[in-house]
Design a protein that fits this description.
Layout: H1 2-18, H2 29-49, H3 68-76, H4 78-91, H5 108-116
Length: 135
């Protein structure tokens, strides 16, 4: 079980890094969730290594973007994360434009529900074949 997690986790990171500007196709739910886990681990470790400047903010938790390293990592991973989210929406049969849902207050909940919990379409859809098929 442990090696399977490690394998899937590394495959998700590899896929996210290889498909940086690939906005077509589909991404599985596990690929997206492992990518989020990778980003969380990376961001926490970056905050530990380079905490936000206390002279700029009142406490360390006010704004992590006051850390130069965190800001750099954050902006480096914006495009790969956006392409992965668009491919995730394609996997459930929705347009990539749904990535704009969090800009509306009410759209935050459906956004996270669709990306993290909804199973992708089993068959080929308009955006490509199922990424979980081993054929």
């Amino acid at each position: 079980m442990r090696t399977r997690f490690k394998l899937y986790f590394l495959e998700a990171i590899q896929s996210g890094c290889k498909n940086v500007v690939n906005f077509s196709g589909r991404a599985s739910r596990s690929e997206y969730n492992y990518w989020l886990l990778f980003l969380l681990i990376l961001q926490i470790s970056v905050i530990i290594i380079d905490p936000p400047n206390p002279q700029v903010s009142r406490s360390y938790s006010d704004n992590p973007l006051n850390s130069r390293l965190f800001s750099f990592i954050y902006f480096v991973f914006i495009i790969p994360s956006t392409s992965l989210v668009i491919r995730r929406f394609h996997d459930i049969g929705k347009s990539g434009w749904y990535v704009l849902l969090p800009f509306t207050i009410i759209g935050i909940l459906p956004y996270y529900y669709w990306t993290c919990f909804v199973i992708g379409e089993k068959k080929e859809n308009a955006y490509g074949p199922n990424p979980l098929n081993n054929n």
